[in-house]
């Protein structure tokens, strides 16, 4: 793994030891807000284009962080947008010039942050590029557009900085933890940043300032190319698609073993989103195995070594289809196909009827980290870690996209609602990916992993897990973990 270092003329940075070298990171916190005017030098107006969960969260966080600096944050929406009323309710209005037509807001901004849906951005980016003022910076929170431009032979316009700040969590959590940061300094959602084009010579500090203003407690460097590959592949794997396929397969497994519906839900979905998630978040991956007794550890080991291989095969296939543009094209095709009708929901399968009852009886009950479930889940997580490492991603990106985002951002929401709710209410890009790949994972667990788990564990695979360098990287990243958890009511 190559060394990943950068410098800043504005912010105090920190070097983090990772396997094979070092990475520079920026620990965040509100004590850095006084440095934001220097980071945003030359920017008097920021245009946030779009009002989805990320648009709402980022516009509000930027506005609050930059209050008193003379930098204005304005929201741009397409004509007739149903989001205008909610933007007004959050304090952005036409009267003071902080809410308006997306192209007009673009034309007035020194930094234009593009947060409309991926497929919509692919369809309309030329209009936006045409409206940019000379020298304005282009900001992204996802590399989808870069992947689309590559597959279509397009490119970003010359003469503009192109930067990205990519929070590793849902928009709701970006806002919620930022607000918690008012009383707990450092509360927030980790973010990566990338500089794709540095026309001004100040793009790194501009990106870092944007991340600090969002409340990111830990900002690490990536590239726009690396970001979209890891992000889109990750949401189809351990972040969403794989966990959906896993809990569906486990629910059926436990029902066949004699569990009633509530017990089967607890042993599958509840175990992952509750005790397994909490153990990884606070103590790391190996702690899940170490806390089990002898028979439980043997069950974990057999499940782990049975699931690692088929999970790795699927994740490699997903990664290839993201890298060659297949997954991106499928999102754009779906946008055309579904433009005038809602996407069907996945929450009709029998297991989800048990979720409300399980959540209602949580008080006074301590869910167990079911060993079979834990082995399968950790194996899938490690398969993604190894695939991303083999593809050359930096360690901060690997641990954030494969572990931290799952256990500290997405799984808490699944615990409060359920996995199906998450799939049915996430971005269209993620939702399409989960619906496509979740059943593939489900089939792999049922047809390959479950039968193999009846045999002995593979000692070499277990040794590779317990001695894996990811544990060092995760421990280093954990030192920057905020002291508060995402709480969903």
Automatic annotation (TrEMBL):
Cofactor(s) demanded: Mg(2+)
Gene3D superfamilies the UniProt entry points to: N-(1-d-carboxylethyl)-l-norvaline Dehydrogenase, domain 2 (1.10.1040.10), NAD(P)-binding Rossmann-like Domain (3.40.50.720)
Keyword Coiled coil among UniProt keywords: no
Entry binding sites for Mg(2+) 1: 231, 235
List of residues binding Mg(2+) 2: 231
Pathway: Amino-acid biosynthesis; L-isoleucine biosynthesis; L-isoleucine from 2-oxobutanoate: step 2/4; Amino-acid biosynthesis; L-valine biosynthesis; L-valine from pyruvate: step 2/4
Annotated TM spans: none
GO molecular function: isomerase activity; ketol-acid reductoisomerase activity; metal ion binding
Name recorded for this polypeptide: Acetohydroxy-acid isomeroreductase
Source species: Nonomuraea phyllanthi
